[in-house]
Amino acid sequence: MNKPKLSHPVFLCGMMGSGKSTIGEKLADKIGVAFADLDSVIEKSEGMSIPEIFEQKQEKGFRAIERNQLIKLAGEIEGILALGGGSLQNQQIVDHLKIYGWLIFIDTSRADIFERLSDPTGRPMLETADELTERINSLFDERMQYYEQAHFSVQTENKSVDEITTEIVKKLTIYEGRDYH
Ligand SMILES: Nc1ncnc2c1ncn2[C@@H]1O[C@H](COP(=O)(O)OP(=O)(O)OP(=O)(O)O)[C@@H](O)[C@H]1O
Ligand SMILES: O=C(O)C1=C[C@@H](O)[C@@H](O)[C@H](O)C1
Ligand SMILES: [Mg+2]
C-alpha cells in the first residue's frame, strides 16, 4: 500500500540544538517524503561551511543567502524542510512559510538547549559569546515571537526523537484533514 503523502510541505523551526535536523530526517522517513536541511542546502550552494560563510560574509551576508534560499525552497519543496535556528528572520518570512506549508515549532526547554550547546564549536552565533547562557537566552527572547506563530508546536522534554516524530505525524494527520489554507 502506498504511504500517504503530504498535501503541503512541512517547515520545522526552533532554536539551535532543538532537534530540527534529527527529527526532520526521521519524520520524512516515517511519512515517506523527501527531507532537506536549509543549512546543508546553503553550504552546498555556497561551496562553504556555515562558519566559513559567517567569516567571509558576516551574519548579514549569511542571513541574505538564508532568506533567498528559504523563499525559493518554500515554493519548491514537497517534503520536510528543517530550518536553521535563525531562519524566521522577520514577520514576512513567517507569513510566507505559513501560506506555503505547515510551520511546526520544535519546542525544547532552555535547560536542554544550554546542555546541548555547551560546546559552541561550529556555531558562529555562539562562538564569540562571552557569556554563553546569556547569549542563548537573548536569542530565545528575540525569536520566540516568531516560533510561537507556528501552526502547532511539539514539546520535546523527556521525549525520544521517535516519540516526538510520532506525535508530529499524529498532529499532521489532523491538520492535513482540515482545510486551513
Ligand atoms: N529528543 C531528543 N533527545 C535527546 N537528544 C536529542 C533530541 N533531539 C535531538 N537531540 C540531539 O540534540 C543535538 C542537536 O540536534 P539537531 O542538530 O537535530 O538540532 P537542530 O535543531 O537541527 O540545530 P541547528 O539549528 O543548530 O541546526 C543532536 O546531538 C541530537 O542528537
Ligand atoms: O540560530 C542561528 O542563528 C543559526 C543556526 C544554525 O542552524 C545555522 O543556520 C547558523 O549557525 C545560525
Ligand atoms: Mg539543524
From TrEMBL:
<dbReference type="InterPro" id="IPR000623">
    <property type="entry name" value="Shikimate_kinase/TSH1"/>
</dbReference>
<keyword id="KW-0028">Amino-acid biosynthesis</keyword>
<feature type="binding site">
    <location>
        <begin position="17"/>
        <end position="22"/>
    </location>
    <ligand>
        <name>ATP</name>
    </ligand>
</feature>
<dbReference type="InterPro" id="IPR023000">
    <property type="entry name" value="Shikimate_kinase_CS"/>
</dbReference>
<feature type="binding site">
    <location>
        <position position="123"/>
    </location>
    <ligand>
        <name>ATP</name>
    </ligand>
</feature>
<keyword id="KW-0067">ATP-binding</keyword>
<comment type="pathway">
    <text>Metabolic intermediate biosynthesis; chorismate biosynthesis; chorismate from D-erythrose 4-phosphate and phosphoenolpyruvate: step 5/7.</text>
</comment>
<comment type="similarity">
    <text>Belongs to the shikimate kinase family.</text>
</comment>
<feature type="binding site">
    <location>
        <position position="85"/>
    </location>
    <ligand>
        <name>substrate</name>
    </ligand>
</feature>
<dbReference type="InterPro" id="IPR027417">
    <property type="entry name" value="P-loop_NTPase"/>
</dbReference>
<keyword id="KW-0808">Transferase</keyword>
<comment type="subunit">
    <text>Monomer.</text>
</comment>
<dbReference type="GO" id="GO:0016301">
    <property type="term" value="F:kinase activity"/>
</dbReference>
<keyword id="KW-0547">Nucleotide-binding</keyword>
<feature type="binding site">
    <location>
        <position position="143"/>
    </location>
    <ligand>
        <name>substrate</name>
    </ligand>
</feature>
<feature type="binding site">
    <location>
        <position position="63"/>
    </location>
    <ligand>
        <name>substrate</name>
    </ligand>
</feature>
<feature type="binding site">
    <location>
        <position position="39"/>
    </location>
    <ligand>
        <name>substrate</name>
    </ligand>
</feature>
<dbReference type="Pfam" id="PF01202">
    <property type="entry name" value="SKI"/>
</dbReference>
<keyword id="KW-0057">Aromatic amino acid biosynthesis</keyword>
<keyword id="KW-0963">Cytoplasm</keyword>
<comment type="function">
    <text>Catalyzes the specific phosphorylation of the 3-hydroxyl group of shikimic acid using ATP as a cosubstrate.</text>
</comment>
<dbReference type="InterPro" id="IPR031322">
    <property type="entry name" value="Shikimate/glucono_kinase"/>
</dbReference>
<protein>
    <recommendedName>
        <fullName>Shikimate kinase</fullName>
        <ecNumber>2.7.1.71</ecNumber>
    </recommendedName>
</protein>
<keyword id="KW-0479">Metal-binding</keyword>
<keyword id="KW-0460">Magnesium</keyword>
<feature type="binding site">
    <location>
        <position position="21"/>
    </location>
    <ligand>
        <name>Mg(2+)</name>
    </ligand>
</feature>
<keyword id="KW-0418">Kinase</keyword>
